[in-house]
Amino acid sequence: MRIVLVGADFEENLGVGMIAAVARQLGHTVRIVTYDRPDQRLAVARAVMSKRPHVVGLSMQFQHRAHDFLALARTLRASGFKGHLTCGGQFPSLAWREVLSEANGLDTVVFNDGEQTFTELLAALEARAPLDEIPGLGLRTADGVPRRTPGRPLNDALDALPLALRY
Q: Rounded to 5 degrees, what are φ and ψ at 34?
């Protein structure tokens, strides 16, 4: 699958690099687009759409940028993005119900350290399998209600993860 990850990059974004590394390890094509300022929203949306992704992941690290990233999600949907739109980071992990409001256009929230959850999400999307059995995920039910799957334990085997993609 073609995946685009979007995040702020004032100093290297390790979370994006880790998610990119696990996705590439599985054979997916991964592109990273930086989104550092609100005035970049339309250019970022154009850059994302030009890559024709199946999955877009938004790295929403900071509460003060949450509105920018949610606006980007809405802009992607308004631009015709029909693929899977997910996000992760501190803010969506805490405000997942609000983030998953239908108005924002996001499909899922990946909680905490997302490497394992993201790989299972990609596998389920490829297989067109239900997402509600993937631990560590927030999603909307068929009737649009946000819900959370059971939590995932933190990964104790960090050395088993690939090195972060340096971009």
A: -90, 150
Tens-level pLDDT at each residue, the chain (167 residues): 999 999 998 777 778 888 999 999 999 999 999 999 999 999 999 999 999 999 999 999 888 899 999 999 999 999 999 999 999 998 999 999 999 999 999 999 999 888 999 999 999 999 999 999 999 999 998 888 999 999 887 767 766 766 677 66
User: How far apart, in whole angstroms, are the C-alpha atoms of residue 112 and residue 78?
Assistant: 28
Please give the DSSP secondary-structure letter assigned to residue 86: E
Residue 154 burial by Cβ neighbours in a 10 Å radius (0-12, 13-18, 19+): exposed
Element (H, E) at 21: helix 14-25
Region of residue 42 (phi > 0: left; psi between -120 and 50: alpha; otherwise: beta): alpha
133 phi and psi angles, rounded to 5 deg: -100, 0
Distance between CA 89 and CA 118 in Å, rounded? Answer: 12
Query: 34-56 burial string, b = 16+ CB within 10 Å, else e?
Result: bbeeeeebeebbebbbeeebbbb
